Amino acid sequence: MSTYIFVTILLCGLVTWLSRIVPFAIIKNLSVPQWLISFLSFVPIAIMTAIFVESLLTYHAGHWPEFNLPNIYASIPAILAGVLTKSLLAVVITGIVAMAVLRLVGWA
Description:
Elements: H1 2-27, H2 34-40, H3 43-56, E1 57-58, E2 66-67, H4 69-85, H5 88-105
Antiparallel strand pairs: 1-2
Helix pairs in contact: 4-5
């Protein structure tokens, strides 16, 4: 059974790697129109916004989403760090430290 799991993990890793590498290999020799490049420039912002908003809400079947207050509290200093430093690393570290402090004081 452990060989089956190991092979499954390896194949999943291979599929993940190929799905990330193959598009770059295909596009490398093609010329992409400017409108497509402009459109794709918004994709990371949209993805990060979706991930961010999803982490701030708690979903319950049949009810409206509720606010996840510890995540909202931890996101405030992280947003400020992003605005002030424009550094993704600063945002991540600030968010982790803010959540750690919230858990230390018992608010999360």
